[in-house]
Amino acid sequence: MGKLVVLDHPLIQHKLTMIRDHRTGTKAFRELVDEVATLMAFEITRDLPLEETEVETPVAKAKAYRIAGKKLGIVPVLRAGLGMVDGVLNLIPAAKVGHVGLFRDPETLKPVEYYFKMPPDISERDLIIVDPMLATGGTAAETITLLKKRGAHNIKLMCLIGAPEGVKAVQTAHPDVDIYLAALDDHLNEHGYIVPGLGDAGDRLFGTK
Ligand code: URA
Asked: Which residues bind 5-phospho-alpha-D-ribose 1-diphosphate (predicted)?
């Protein structure tokens, strides 16, 4: 079973409270999501392997460390996932970015791919899927399936808020994928919103409501 990690760093929790607040407007919401994405990226890259190197300081030669040639990819799920991309790129500026767009078929209620554009070498990359809300888990699970079909095999899922239903769905479908959240909330309501959540992440990010 993949890990479920709730990142309880005080700065993440403080900023998440401001993100949840219904009085927070579009500009502040966007900035805060960006900042939390950076802080979360810092936490979830803790396990990147290091290799030893040497550096010459103004004073002397020193034994030092650098990240051991890992290639990373960020995969935002359209549309709300876009709000987390720059925050991750702040820390990992050389990462490539692939995009996934899915819509729900009104008949089958299953997610259907309408956009999928990845860097060509996703099988060699550690991928971080970003999407602010892990609600039913249907979109996240399908995104992971699509990435695996194209050869990806090292995938992490990073969301601001998860519902237990979504966590279970992803863990059941993809037990190899670790899930990172800033908060695990209570449940989904009858409209598919996370309770208490933060409302519609896409609308709040882009001011479309
Ligand atoms: N998507 C959102 O934007 N908010 C939710 O609460 C659930 C899904």
From this structure: 79, 104, 131-139, 200
Q: Residues 11-29: pLDDT tens digits?
A: 999 999 999 999 999 999 9
Is there an atom of ligand 1 within 6 Å of 133 CB? yes
- The CATH number assigned to the domain holding 151 equals 3.40.50.2020
Q: CA 61 to CA 16: how far, in whole Å?
A: 43
Nearest ligand 1 atom to alpha carbon 204:
3
Q: What is the ipTM of this complex?
A: 0.96
Q: Please identify, by atom number, the ligand 1 atom nearest to the C-alpha of residue 202.
A: 3
How confident is the model over 56-97, as pLDDT tens digits?
999 999 999 999 987 999 999 999 999 999 999 999 999 999
Which residues line the annotated binding site for uracil? 194, 199-201
Nearest ligand 1 atom to alpha carbon 195 = 6
Domain that holds residue 201: 4-206
Q: What is the number of domains present in the chain?
A: 1
Return the residue whose CA atom lies nearest to atom 2 of ligand 1: 200
